Amino acid sequence: MDDNTPRARGSAPTVPREAAPKVQQPKPQALPSRSGPSSILVSPRQKGNPILNSVRAVAWEYSDIPADYVVGATTCALFLSLKYHRLHPEYIYNRIRDLKGQYGLRILLTMVDIENHEDPLRELSKTSLVNNVTLMLCWSAQEAGRYLELFKTFENAAPTSIRAQQPGTYSETMYDFITVPRSINKTDAFGLVHNFGSIRTAINAGPEEIGLIAGWGDKKVQRWCNAVREPFRVKRAARRGGGQDGTQAAVSLDVSLVQGENQTPAETGADNTALRRVDEAIPLAMEPGRSAPFAPTVSDADKRPDHRSAEDANEDEEEAMREAEMARAAVSDRAQSTASNPAKRKQAEEDMSEGVMAALNKLRKQ
């Protein structure tokens, strides 16, 4: 038909049709095929083992394998009795070495048939960690056979049965976080979020505010506050330094503080005056040629002056010094025994002063 031919009246213009979208067929997914045998492979070394009588749910057959049992394409098991291990401790090390890393999961199925099993199990645990071996313990042949059946049955099972359920929404994650402390359930978590509006506000809230929520008792409030406020790392108590001298000084300071709590300022001043006068008393000189049988004490009453010429001291001076020392010691003992009575303390100070002055006068006259 020529392009110049006139079109008929009332005829609509021709509209080209759009091509229909192609339907894409899903590609078939290849299912994981069982590359391993359908039965448990047993090494001829295990003939006569009583655990084979307990393997009934799954078929098993003998095969020439480096391990004792093959329960999957990448899973094997070695059997060990602790009685045999006690007699031949090198056996299991040679068996692990013979595997040469052929399997991804290597199980050491251990029969605990001795009483003192702590030390052997500790040794086997270390060996398992070093050689990438999983240690499984069993206490009977039936239990060991059941383990072999389960390993073979769940060879191609998905991990969903043992995998923890992951929260899908934010609210589920929030409730899981709040219910971590003991005895706090989802109802308590809902009440906490409903009252405070956010986790941040709930964490910063005080115990008094949280205690107003219905269902939140004292124990729940305390556990929640401890969970959100305690540090992640426990700080160890700082070791107190100082030797014996520091300890004695601290003890003496504590004793003085305790004694000073029950004394008035006037009594404290009187005590300080008495101690100062005792310190100012002239000490007893040492006799020439006599060695001290023991070291002098560290108390202020027994301290000697640093510079004392023993050649200038005569017998009269020594006698006067002894009298002064005896008077001072007697007065100090009396002052300590009557420290709680101000009147007695005053009398003790006067007696001490009179004794010291008498000794000094006698020394001057000579």
UniProtKB/TrEMBL annotation:
Query: Among its keywords, does the record have Transcription?
Result: no
User: Domain ERCC1-like central spans what residues?
Assistant: 39-152
Annotated Basic and acidic residues bias: 300-311
Which segments carry the region annotation Disordered? 1-45, 285-366
Task: Report any one BP term from Gene Ontology.
Answer: double-strand break repair
Q: Where is this gene product found?
A: Nucleus
What is the recorded name of this protein? Mating-type switching protein swi10
- Keyword DNA-binding included in the entry's annotation: yes
Q: Which GO terms describe its molecular function?
A: damaged DNA binding; single-stranded DNA binding
InterPro entries (UniProt xref): ERCC1-like_central_dom (IPR047260), ERCC1/RAD10/SWI10 (IPR004579), Restrct_endonuc-II-like (IPR011335), RuvA_2-like (IPR010994)
Q: Pfam families annotated for this entry? A: Rad10 (PF03834)
Q: Name one GO cellular component term.
A: nucleotide-excision repair factor 1 complex
Q: Fetch the SUPFAM superfamilies from UniProt.
A: Restriction endonuclease-like, RuvA domain 2-like
Q: Which UniProt keywords apply?
A: DNA damage, DNA repair, DNA-binding, Nucleus
What protein family does this chain belong to?
Belongs to the ERCC1/RAD10/SWI10 family.
